[in-house]
Amino acid sequence: MGIVGSILLKGKEIYRTTSDKRHPLGTRGYTRDGRVFRYARNGGVALAVGKLVQSEAPQTNLSDDLSVNIGVTSGAAAINITVTTVTTLNAFAGGYIFVNDGAGEGQMAQILSHTSASTGSTLNSRMNIELADGGIFTTAVSTGAVGTTDSEVGIVRNPYDKAIIAPATLTSVALGVTPRAVAVNYYFWVQTWGPAVVQVNSTGTGIPAAGFPLIPATVAGAVTRYWGYLSTDDSSQSWAGGDVRVELIKYGHYPIGNCMEVGADGETGMVDLKLAP
User: Fold this and answer.
1) The pTM is what?
2) Most exposed among 64, 88, 115, 189, judged by the fewest C-beta atoms under 10 Å?
3) Are 47 and 166 within 8 A, CB to CB?
4) Are strands 78-82 and 66-70 parallel, antiparallel or unpaired?
5) 187 and 149 within one domain
6) 67-115 pLDDT tens trace
């Protein structure tokens, strides 16, 4: 029995890509054998099959510390903010607005729609945001200058909007693996759970071992062995053929799944994905 709101993907449906949007971003799809997918949109670079992909990196001029033009009270379903970079109409629709500081800090709501904004004048830099699915602010959000006790907000895209190949150093959260090649700006199903094929980085002491966790590699779009040591002083816990001791904090990545089959370096191997069930 599938999770309510999920879509059963049959046969070639997991490989379908379209130039138009067919489902809300993040919609859960699943196959009868237990694999799970999420509906996503590619970014500005074509994706190859069998690659680890991540969310678009946060836009630094929009991700926090934006001022509120008109304060809102508890129960408000819209808000007007000032942005510091050109933003096209509904570029962040399906994404999120959150209060990062000041009055109302800690709140978040999904964005239904928003106006465009530019930086040519005070008026043009204002963006009006409507909240999605009956979303509201549960406490007041105040207006005022950034750096005061008044509210500061940020906006981010839906994590499944404008996916990119995971770079050598992650700049956002890992989403899943591409089950097929995807054209620029096309919508597709990214696999997030269950057996999948992905590029492997397996050289030296980074060779994956069947059954053990994998993390994003320092090769774009690939995965590698996860060395799960708590400190560099513990040499007794080497995993299957190496005495490499790397602190967890050095990588800063959570495992994306477990190795099912050890692929040769630069080739693809099998992984049991454990990202979004």
Assistant:
1) 0.86
2) 88
3) no
4) antiparallel
5) no
6) 999 889 999 999 999 998 889 999 999 999 999 999 999 999 999 999 9
